Amino acid sequence: MHRVATADVDWKAIREDFPILHEKAHGQPLIYFDSAATSQKPRKVLDALQNYYEHNNANVHRGLHELSSRATEAYERSRRRVAEYLGAASPEEIVFTRGTTESINLVAQAWGGKFLREGDVILLTEMEHHSNLVPWQLLAERIGVRLRFVPVRDDGTLALEQLSSLLTREVKLFAFTHVSNSLGTINSVADLCEEARNVGALTLIDAAQSAGHLPINVRELGCDFLAFSGHKMCGPTGIGALYGRAEILSAIPPWHGGGEMIVSVTLERSAFKKAPHRFEAGTPNIAGAIGLEAAIDYIEQIGRPAIFEHDMQLAHYAMERLEELPGMRVLGPRAERGALVGFVMKSAHPHDLTTFADRYGLALRGGHHCNQPLMRRFGLPGTTRASFYFYNTKEEIDRMIEILSDAVRFFS
């Protein structure tokens, strides 16, 4: 990715936009290194949520009164903003969901349920989050599709030399993560999409760890589906989106049934709206969509290229500092990587180490990170993960190293 100078961004001033960063944990200044699980929210997002509930709270699409019109316009404006953010051809290619998990389940059940047959193959990778594994396992149990996996090398990258033997004409969908939530690996998703097209397979990108960190243009990537979660990119929880190419979405039947997604209903049958609304049964997360738009505006003011460069610098700095500690194993590639570092301390279980760090106000995450097959691949019960965002600093990493140095002495 093209390098971008970050010196022109006042990163210290940005921290002031996040009220929670002034919190204390166990009486210590909070160091929040868990943004891969969920990011913190700037005032702009908090204000957007409060403004909606104070001034425009109403249900969307169905009402003829003023408040409903305002809410509907704000909700659909957010859809347009997401489409622009992802480089989609039109807002009709954006389906609002609860997040990445629901988006992938929608594709598995609605698209997979209609177009896949027993014996068809879904190709995944060994580094997938459970949200891009379990839905396909459920589909395999239900209709008999088969799952294949691209292996992961010891350095945390995909064994792409095996791709030609795995990505065959039997594969109907190739689903893969953009950035690994445990290893920090950044996959060459445009190349993977091209390889899939060459054998007639569709593609799905899990962008949960990339949508808020680096530029994404779905038409340039050439993907058929892309899923992301708002709460990992400064937005509210419970909101996300599925991008799907228009011609594919138009061929998929509804997944959930209920109000709002219908044209007409009789006692015997129903007629459904066009995509994307046919996939949004019931009252949607209106406030969440409005908050997501505010989050996108905030991120774009900073610029995703600058955010990516800043976060990668933090990740590399953290790797270098961690390797100064005795008995520390750092996972993942050493080259370009996402905004996180997973590591294992020889003398402490990840849960114990994370609990120790919490006593000093340091928020890490310990465990398998919804990556149990990947942990088994590396012979580990789990890792401790430090994940970063543009509101974090090198000084915070230095403090983390001080705390972990104390942990080495304590557990040894």
Task: From the structure above, extract its key features.
single chain; 412 residues; alpha/beta; Aspartate Aminotransferase, domain 1; Aspartate Aminotransferase, domain 2; 7-stranded mixed β-sheet; 4-stranded antiparallel β-sheet; 14 helices; globular
Write up this protein.
The protein contains 14 helices and 17 strands. The chain is α/β, with parallel strands linked by helices. The chain folds into two domains: about 10-40 and about 305-410, Alpha-Beta Complex (Aspartate Aminotransferase, domain 1); about 45-300, Aspartate Aminotransferase, domain 2 (3-Layer(aba) Sandwich). The strands form five sheets. Strands 4-10-9-8-7-5-6 form a seven-stranded mixed β-sheet, with helices on both faces. Strands 13-14-17-16 form a four-stranded antiparallel β-sheet, with helices on one face. Helix 4 packs parallel to helix 5 and helix 11 runs parallel beside helix 14 (about 395-410). It is globular. The mean pLDDT is about 95.
Give the second-level CATH assignment, the architecture of the largest domain. Answer: 3-Layer(aba) Sandwich
Evaluate the radius of gyration.
Answer: 22 Å
Which of globular, elongated, flat, extended, rod-shaped describes the shape? Answer: globular
* Average pLDDT metric: 96
CATH topology type of the largest domain: Aspartate Aminotransferase, domain 2
- The domain count comes to 2
CATH superfamily of the largest domain: Type I PLP-dependent aspartate aminotransferase-like (Major domain)
- Per DSSP E runs of 2 or more residues, the count of β-strands stands at 17
Query: What strand order characterises the main sheet?
Result: 4-10-9-8-7-5-6
Distance between the amino and carboxyl termini: 41 Å
**What structural class do you assign from the helix and strand content?**
alpha/beta
Low-confidence sequence ranges? none
Helical fraction: 25-40%
Number of discrete helical segments: 14
Biggest pleated-sheet summary: 7 strands, mixed
CATH class of the largest domain: Alpha Beta
* Beta-strand share of residues: 15-25%
